[in-house]
Amino acid sequence: MCSKVKSQFVDIKYSGDFSHRACMFHKDVEYKRLPSFDSSSQNTDAYNQAKALENVAADFEKQFARQIQFGKTATAKMWEYMQFYKWNTRIFQDKTLLAPMDYTRVQDPNHIFKLPAYTAMAVGLELSLNETQETLRLSGLGFDPNDRTQKVCISFQLSKGVLSMNVMMC
User: Fold this and answer.
1) DSSP state string for 61-101
2) Whether the model pTM is above 0.70
């Protein structure tokens, strides 16, 4: 005695007394043709560009590792400024409005902050525009002249201070 179960994808046939193994049969399915790589000049150019981007990423990682080993990072530069002005945790908090943990993180030259933290430190240290831009360049976060938030940060850095900048950005 054999019974047949129909499924959407396969037909399964098995014996009622379970003495035989189940047999599976594929249904008549029309397989879709998947797109394939056409070696036209346009596709080859896109492939080459993708490979070039992979190479750029690898080059960036090598350069970043070299910079950490031989050059200064933005965090190390900020720490030098803080050492020069003899900052401690209390002064850091008062001038930057950042958490005390950030003061500890500044001491690690490999720690990477986001733009608002670097900007708050630059404002607290009263760095010039050139010093701030150099520090941000080291971090890879240089100012974008088309970004409104960054324009607000730089304009308030030059004129008012951290508290005014925080009020404006809220």
Assistant:
1) HHHHHHHHHHS--HHHHHHHHHHHTT--HHHHHHHH---HH
2) no
